[in-house]
Amino acid sequence: MKLWEYNLLSRIKRYWVPLTVIFLLLAAVFGYAYITTPTTVTKEITVTRTLYLWSGGIEGMGVVVQPNPIWDVGRKVVLPIYPLSIMPTAEVELHFNMSGDNVNVEFERELKVVYYLSYDKERVVEETYRAVSNTSTGSSFADSLSLNISDIFNRIELTRNILKLPKESVGVELVGRIRYSGTVNGRPVEGTQEFRGSISFPYDGFYSIASDLKNGTQAFTETVTENRTVNQGKRVMFLALSALSAVLAGIAVAVGWRFNPAAYNVNEMELEREKKKLAKWVSSGRLPERLSTERVELASLADLVEAAIDMNKRVIHDPSEGVYFFLDGGMLYYFRERITKGEK
Fold it and tell me: 301-310 vs 266-278: helix axis angle to the nearest 10?
């Protein structure tokens, strides 16, 4: 056993009872902290969820009326520009759709076609050409109107010829207005939407239809309860400290009951420590049996080594005799190991 181990065990032996009590109390405290530290925490948070998605708009297409080598009569086509000579009729549609869980909504809507003539961006003439209103329930609808574009064009031309305004501008406006109310997934909903398309005459004998398409999301907020895992690292630390304190309490009890300081020689341990510390200044050798010189005995190995260093000598160790020595100027300097078993 090394000296530091002996000293440590001796101190534990001396105070093993209070140490055991302290470590047991620590084990209990850390164990209680481990048990009572919560593993989860409940919080109320506000979250935003999607209630429904909506999409809708006004779109138009030309209807082939006159026979031609390109399209069959009656076919509906979508083009960037339409010839009046082949497609004097157009069809416009107002449509709307809501997607969600258990959509039950009533739709009130109106689709109106208005032609106008303006002077310096101020409308002088505005007439409703056709309008349709409907009501239905469900999650979607689609209303359409058939328009005689040639007739609308002729009416606009007649108005222009009558007024003959300078800086005039003409056009056709497609207006769709929707009002809805009902429930989606049991939640009450209501709202309005408006779509505006147009019909223009960019060139003589041609017209174009501009659509208006939109979509969106309707969300709602609600408060929900959330459970989060917490304190995992802290609980592991408390458990480890509780276990460590219990182990230390057991060690204190074991040392207090079983360790006997009197069974060890303190002088021997101190000498062993000193030997290791001074080993680089000591060599092995043998003390001559007959050596008629004056002798000087030093009190410790450390004193002998210091004297040898001062005299530029090296200490010799004779293990058979248990003596350390060196010679200088006919004088023998030595230190003899004195080990008494059971000595403290």
Answer: 20
